[in-house]
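Project standup — Tuesday

K.O.: blocked on the structure for the chain from last sprint. Re-posting the sequence here as requested.
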Amino acid sequence: MIKVLLVDDHALFRQGLRELLAKAPDLRVAAEAGSYAQAIEMLRTNDINVVVADLSMPGRDGIDLISHIKASNPVVSILVLTMHEDCEYAARALRSGASGYMTKASTSEDLISGIRRIASGRSFVSPSVSEGLMLRFTRSDSETPPHRTLSHREFRIFELLVQCQTTTKIARELSLSVKTVSTHKTRLLKKMGLQHQGELVRYAIEHKLAGH
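H.V.: unblocked you, prediction finished:
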């Protein structure tokens, strides 16, 4: 039996996943979490084989959560199930230790297959995302989109800036000083060849990086 932890801040979405996975005789939803803090607690108090987690939730960064899980529970496999189709999110998640990456546009059959696959020690990536990953590694440096040159911290601040959050709010959420956030903001704008936050938002929309 594959014991699954569902991590998503939308209760109705978790309910739908739970009902879907109940149809598979070898899968059981052992626990659910509506936040990353709850996810860490559920992992501490339950025997879990696979974590199915969204990347974009209030509070802790999804990439940080993946790293935390792999550091504290290395035998647990992680399948990211997210709205983000850009392969940059997939690349960062896989580098951090996720075994699989799927978009929420995937079929129920793909989800069940993906969970089974990563539970057996293999990897699973949505076909649309895997194609983007292949292109990502075959592009020349001159063809690489600017956001892919950002460090993990810069990319996280980029995500929050395009949600129109202030530097003060970002500093509070990431437990950083306002000065540090401002420095990262200046650096990432320079790397991307942009002038201000409004241009960041437009860039994110054009590259399908905007959204919850």
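K.O.: great, moving the ticket to review. The chain has two domains: 2-136, 142-206. Residues 178-192 form the longest helix (15 residues).
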